[in-house]
Amino acid sequence: MQLGFGITFPDLYERDGLIKVDAAFLAFLGEADRAAADRLSAARAHPPAGLAESQLLIALAPHVEDFIARLFGIEREARALAQRHNELAPLYSVKRQFVQRRALHKVKPAELQGFDPVAAERELFGGEVTELEFARQVSAWLADEAAHARQLELAARYAAWAATTPAGKAKHATGVLFKAPQKLDYMRLVPVHSDTSRGFAALRLEHLRHRDGFALTDPGTDLTGALDEANYCIWCHEQGKDSCSKGLKEKANEGFRATVFGVPLAGCPLEEKISEFHMVKARGEPLAALGIIAVDNPMMAATGHRICNDCMKSCIYQKQDPVDIPQAETRTLKDVLELPWGFEIYSLFTRWNPFDLRRPCPKAPTGRRVLIVGLGPAGFTLAHHLMNDGHAVVGIDGLKIEPLEAPISGVDALGQHVPFRPIRDVAELREPLERRVMAGFGGVAEYGITVRWDKNFLKLIRLLLERRRQFAMFGGVRFGGTLTIDEAFADGFDHIALCAGAGRPTVLDIPNGLARGVRAASDFLMALQLTGAAKRESIANLQIRLPIVVIGGGLTAIDAATESLAYYAVQVEKFLARYEALGAEPDWNAEERGIAQEFIAHARALRAARSEDRLGLLKSWGGVTIAYRRRLIDSPSYTLNHEEVEKALEEGVVFAEGLSPSRIEVDRYGHARSVAFAVDGKQLELPARSVLIAAGTQPNTVLAREEGVSLALDGKYFLACDESGAPLRPERHTAKPKRPEVLLHRYPDGRFMSFFGDLHPSYFGNVVKAMGGAKQGYPVVSRVLAQRPAAAAESDAAFLAR
Known about the structure:
The protein has about 800 residues and is of the alpha/beta class. About 40% of the residues lie in helices and about 10% in strands. The strands form six sheets. A seven-stranded mixed beta sheet has the order 1-2-11-10-9-15-8. The protein has a six-stranded mixed beta sheet with strand order 5-4-3-6-22-21. Helix 3 (about 50-70) packs across helix 4, helix 3 packs across helix 13 (about 285-295) and helix 17 (about 375-390) packs parallel to helix 27 (about 765-785). The radius of gyration is 28 Å and the shape is globular. The mean pLDDT is about 95.
């Protein structure tokens, strides 16, 4: 790596070096645009808000783009990436001005009777063309409409055919030019078909995706798709209407509007500058777009596509398809990561960010030390912000954290900081998900989220923290047991932040509710991923039998349904391979022999089947049914994230409505055989050899029950306190409380504990709410830390080493 401006690689990871980077940028900006440099200096002294801040960041964007490219010596690659953005521009202008405003409005369905699209393409273009070629040619004709009236008329008819007819939609299914936003029907967001022949409504999709194993199931959109979303956005920060970020406010009061299902439209919990990054991305400045995202969401590798949708729910488009902001965000990150030194660029933006007017560089060391309990989304986000506020941070987690190679992580086998090398190609950090070893870092993002999301992003987040000299982490630590509160404070910590996440799952109080074959859905997902059972070479003991019934209606039920169906095929194929390798039948008892014969028969049938027929076989053996006590449209999964429901049903899962479980029926061996349900005053049974209970979880407040611990509870949550130690109740069920009340307990010497994520009544529920709570709460932690004198002479390095 040869950095520009006299900067060295170690400078990028030390505060003094980052101050050098900032000085180099200010000098670069001053030479290019003295007025912009003066505006930035004034804004750092007195940060503006709202439109004034947005306009300044957008004005800075081209200069940041050029500076980063020169700093990392990638001017040629950055120009090529920008050129790819600009080359696609005709797609979006023609889509808006020609396809949507002319073709779809003026071409009547009757005019498409007998329309021959092949002949039209041949006449217009001499043969079949791509969407981009179509857009470029139409742009050229629009420059002189009078001379090309015939071509434009025929092109409009072709566009109307492509956008409205089944044949046209099928031909252009993977494109963007001929796709118009659809009107939203909130009662039918998922186009299900209902079958009531069995006495209840069983909901299915006709179009299915054939999945095999545990590779990444959804790679997300490409640059064309991301720019389509960025151009669909109306960049409403200019009118102060960027509800995707700030939420849709009620006119009568300060509260947020709600969906028809009662879900508050509070917008992005991180209040990311969405409209601004879309504008800059669409303008062909992808490096700057990433920097704008990183102001509010530096841990963006943990958000985005298939993780969060709070922004989409609050999009200004409430009557038609919203902007798919998570797709655009994740693609923006990927575009930069795929450049040479792309990870180092992303990493730099999390420590030095010229778009961050309030904290462009990390603050000077404060001498305060914070212990963070739990390294999930709340924990790793809090750790980042506290380090940028000048504090030293130690993170502990109950999971065993696997070490990374020292030249990559900067931490050796003994936990000591050592020199590390820059990463030129992000591909060296990636592993195929079906063979990836669970590294233990990331909490629920590691053990709970399925392969719909690329868990290689977790390694990026880990490196953002682990490479910093102000940070250390330890796995396999049970707080309250391995390490107690008193021991932590005695060791020199000034603050303890609890980010331990959800606790025990809710158990259904029904007969045979703990029979063999019945388990908590969250327990199944953890066992599947943490033991490596999903890997074909693994010998982990995790048995699933068909048919499978998942009881619940939340996203955990959705994930358990898709993963259990995928795992069954992997499981029986592993069983058959080992049976054949053994060459002899083990000394099975009668029950074991029956199960073995079932597995062997199913594995041989799957082995002989074509890939497109495998799902049909799994469904014929009983498949997976989600049983929910109410309607689909009442379920948390539908009201919060209906896209995940649709994705699950595409994999062959059936959603059964109106089923309240009353008992588990068992066979003569005491193993689950079926589930009895109450339906409209009647009883019916669904065959079930595996029953996964997804009835919710409780906050992990077990610490309050440890001997010698005096933490009070407020219902199922910890009781919060203010800065004087007086008890209070934080706002519940809102990701954006008026005040972030994150303090948990004040000790006589002025030290505090705090709590975040699923432990907190404001921030529980999903990854991005936990991260938003950490962003809102870290200033509170810094403020109470500043009220105590700093530790004595021991340096942060000596403290972490000890």
